[in-house]
Specification:
Elements lengths: L3 E3 L5 E11 L2 E11 L5 E8 L6 H16 L15 H12 L8 H15 L9 H13 L4 H20 L27 H14 L1 H13 L3 H5 L6 E2 L4 E6 L2 E6 L2 H13 L13 H11 L3 H5 L6 E2 L4 E4 L8 E4 L5 H11 L19 H9 L16 H14 L3 H8 L18 H6 L6 H16 L6 H10 L1
Antiparallel strand pairs: 1-2, 2-3, 3-4, 5-6, 6-7, 8-9, 9-10
Helix pairs in contact: 2-5, 3-5, 6-7, 6-13, 7-9, 7-14
Length: about 475
């Protein structure tokens, strides 16, 4: 068996785990070897050092086994679980369920690889206990992970087990039925003033124009980062400036103001300047081959933008940096497959892309965090809930709308809140309207309050602006 290390005891071996740890060191599993009735070499697992198993204990078990075998007795052997391991279940979940997820399950895969796989990949699902999961929860929290992050990690595990049960691959009860998920208090109320927002955008712009545009759109629409970076060309309607947003709570449409629309327009122009043969992703032999077939200098190939290539006509229209004239270069049949491959990699209907046309990650770019710190918005020792993060732009938009007097239900619709409960955190910012003042006066009944409001509306707007049915209803009710 590969990876086995001999011990000083005859027929006893130890295996050092690459992922499992105990007492600050790699955990060890002890085995003993023997030959069966057919003289075939066999291994028998005794247990892990973390289970209080030692080499001496494994040697004693081997002696008992050998004596029983010589006396013709059937040795008692450890019954192996026939259930699916969590790692095997995760692979099924990845194959069957990831295609249904908006980001292809990238975040789930990352959390599994970093946190879950080292401890649970080889664990049979039917052997995972609620107590073990409670210990795992405490372990993650002690590592310094936020309760929200721990909740996501445990939620991923629960989803895998629930899907396995639904698909008939696991028939037991989910251990998560007896596990309390960490309580999360991440309700941020911090929002930026106009001067703080201007300073932050100015600082971001010095570091990255792309992240300046992304931040500008979020600040002026309240859109989440994933909603901005996931926007495709056909999600924008130039004639009406309407943006069709595909958010986590469903689709919604908003009309963009000048700042947001101009940011999207500039981003569309910038995506034409995506470099095809991205440095670090293409080898020098490919660069030289393209140069030889097209007549471009190797240095020019490295700066070739997507807008310079016309695959339909089979030509490249390019102007060298030290020249004022554009020249036309032919794409030969020999080099055409290379261009098709790399242009395809760069071509995307996403408005915001990374190097080489790859999608922008859904996690906040370091540019934003660095800019917020440079502005003095995140001093040392600041409460995590008061820290300015990308999501603060969303809170700022909602807060500014509330201050303007925008009804809470409308704010909820604009930013895609699933319920108005989330929007109610901005209620204290809403100005007191004339109608609210009227209601708060000494009115003994609902009818008196309605009459007061109606009288005010007639005075301000004229009685012709009030529907006759409303006047009749109030008169009858009185």
């Amino acid at each position: 068996m590969k990876g086995m290390i001999k011990t000083k005891f005859v027929g006893v071996y130890r295996y050092v785990s690459d992922t499992k740890r105990f007492d600050g060191k790699p955990d060890e599993c002890f085995y003993y070897s023997y030959r069966d009735e057919d003289k075939k070499f066999r291994w028998h697992k005794v247990g892990w050092r973390s289970e209080k198993v030692t080499a001496q204990y494994a040697a004693d078990k081997r002696s008992e086994f050998m004596v029983a075998a010589r006396n013709g007795e059937t040795p008692k052997r450890t019954k192996k679980s026939n259930g699916i391991t969590f790692g095997q279940g995760y692979e099924v979940f990845k194959e069957k369920w990831f295609p249904n997820l908006k980001n292809g399950g990238y975040d789930i895969a990352l959390r599994y690889r970093v946190h879950t796989a080292p401890l649970f990949a080889n664990k049979p699902v039917d052997k995972i206990t609620p107590l073990e999961l409670e210990d795992y929860k405490l372990f993650l929290l002690k590592k310094g992970l936020a309760p929200a992050s721990v909740r996501l990690i445990l939620g991923d595990m629960r989803n895998v087990i629930n899907k396995l049960k639904k698909w008939g691959l696991f028939k037991g009860e989910s251990p998560f039925q007896q596990v309390d998920m960490p309580k999360v208090d991440n309700a941020r109320t911090r929002f930026l003033s106009r001067s703080e927002a201007d300073l932050l955008l100015e600082t971001i712009n010095r570091h990255s124009r792309k992240w300046f545009l992304i931040s500008t759109i979020s600040l002026n629409t309240g859109a989440r980062l994933s909603e901005v970076t996931g926007t495709k060309i056909h999600d924008l309607q130039p004639e009406t400036r309407v943006w069709q947003i595909r958010g986590k709570t469903g689709r919604r449409s908003i009309t963009l103001n000048d700042a947001a629309w101009n940011a999207f327009t500039e981003a569309l122009e910038r995506r034409k300047r995506i470099i095809i043969f991205t440095s670090g992703q293409v080898d020098q032999d490919t660069i030289n081959f393209v140069s030889q077939e097209t007549g471009l200098f190797p240095t020019d190939v490295k700066y070739l933008h997507l807008e310079c290539v016309d695959m339909e006509r089979g030509v490249i229209i390019y102007r060298r940096r030290n020249s004022a004239k554009y020249r036309t270069y032919r794409i030969t049949e020999a080099v055409r497959p290379v261009f098709e491959e790399w242009v395809s990699k760069c071509s995307s209907d996403l408005i915001f892309t990374g190097r080489g046309g790859i999608p922008v990650g859904s996690s906040t770019n370091k540019t934003f965090d660095r800019s917020a710190s440079e502005c003095g918005l995140n001093p040392a020792g600041i409460d995590p809930l008061d820290k300015v993060v990308f999501h603060t732009l969303r809170h700022t938009y909602c807060s500014w709308e509330a201050i303007k007097g925008t009804p809470l239900f409308k704010i909820a619709r604009l930013v895609g809140h699933k319920t108005t409960t989330m929007t109610e955190r901005y209620a204290h910012l809403c100005p007191i309207t004339e109608s609210q003042n009227l209601i708060s006066k000494d009115a003994d009944s609902t009818i008196e309050q309605l009459n007061a409001i109606l009288t005010h509306l007639i005075k301000e707007k004229g009685i012709e602006q009030v529907p006759q049915s409303v006047l009749d209803w109030v008169d009858q009710a009185g």
